[in-house]
Amino acid sequence: MRQIYNPPAVASRQPPVSNTLLNSSMSPSRNSILPPRSSYRPDSFGRYLNQQAFVKPIRGRALFSRSIHRIIEQIRDKKQRMKNDQQVFSTYEEAISIFSDLTFMKCVVLKKKLLDSNSRTWTIEFAREGGLHALLSYLEQTSNRGLTLVDAILINETLQCLRAMMNIGELFQHMASNLQYIDSVAKVLRIPSVEIRMRVFELLTALCVYSNDGYQLVLHALQDFQTRDKLPNVFAVILEQIKSAAMSKHKWSAIALLNSILSSTEAIERRLSYRNILISDGIISTLEKARDDNDVDLNVQIDTFFEDQKDDQEEFLENFNSNDNQSITQAIQLQVCY
After folding, report:
1. Burial class (CB in 10 A: 0-12, 13-18, 19+), 284
2. What is the per-residue pLDDT across 106-122, written as a single tens digit (0 to 9) for each?
3. What are the residues whose beta carbons fall under 8 Å from the beta carbon of 98, sequence distance 6 or more?
4. Could you tell me the residue ranges of all domains in the chain?
5. Average pLDDT taken over every residue of the chain
6. For a FRET experiment, which of 15, 43, 219, 250 has its CA 20 to 30 Å from that of 35?
7. DSSP string of 124-163?
8. Residue closest to 154 by CA, chosen among 106, 212, 92
9. How far is Cα of residue 322 from the mean position of the Cα atoms in its chain?
10. How far is it, in rounded angstroms, from Cα 208 to Cα 224?
């Protein structure tokens, strides 16, 4: 008789009883994620807060101390740089000699010194010792040769140095009475750079409104520039700036110079003659187009031009003499141009 095999019964395995969990409150294991029981004691938590309250002020004081030291170092470095700048040109001859081999950094250092309000006496003596003449000679010589980009940058910086010198009344008056100086500045207009021409226009505008002598010298310099460069009229280079410039500030400087020349011209007949030249060269349409820039300062100059034009027309008609052939001719030109 066949016997049926019955596999032995497997007793269920009971998990071993671990004393770890039972005794965890007394002796936690090394791998347990629970902190030691002692960290939950009220006195240890208070000690933790006291430690944080003690550490934070130290960190804050350290940060404050580092900030103070950094500020002190910056002030010390600034004073050292100022001292170095003052020592760069220890003599006037050394400052003047830079124009024989001018670099951008030398020009920047000179400009900083000229703009320094504490260097007013130094600036005056620098000009008297030949600094102004050397600066203008550099402008004239550089503008007469083929220019590179570096030359254009140096001329722009040199014009800013000249403007800084003209901030002093004595030097401004000296320059406004010297045709050679103004002629040297006007020659820079030969450079086809709107930025450089803007600097020149600003200087000429200041000279023009300063005095009648300055106005006469500026007009004479522009006439000489017209003759040398064979331009159609004395305002050609100014009108070119208004027409070709893309930025409002460049147009503004040119229109401001026109307004200063016209307002400084005393004779109404001469003013109308200048306006006829401008109108025949398309100044009206050029100014109307410039309004599209929507620049407040530029629009002020444009409005000034048209308002003065209207005032000149009314003044001429009030003093019109029908028995004077010249007045009749100007009246006809006035009607044609306007």
Report:
1. middle
2. 898 899 888 887 788 99
3. 106, 107, 110
4. 62-194, 231-338
5. 80
6. 15
7. HHHHHTTHHHHHHHHHHHHHTS---HHHHHHHHHHHHHHH
8. 106
9. 53
10. 16
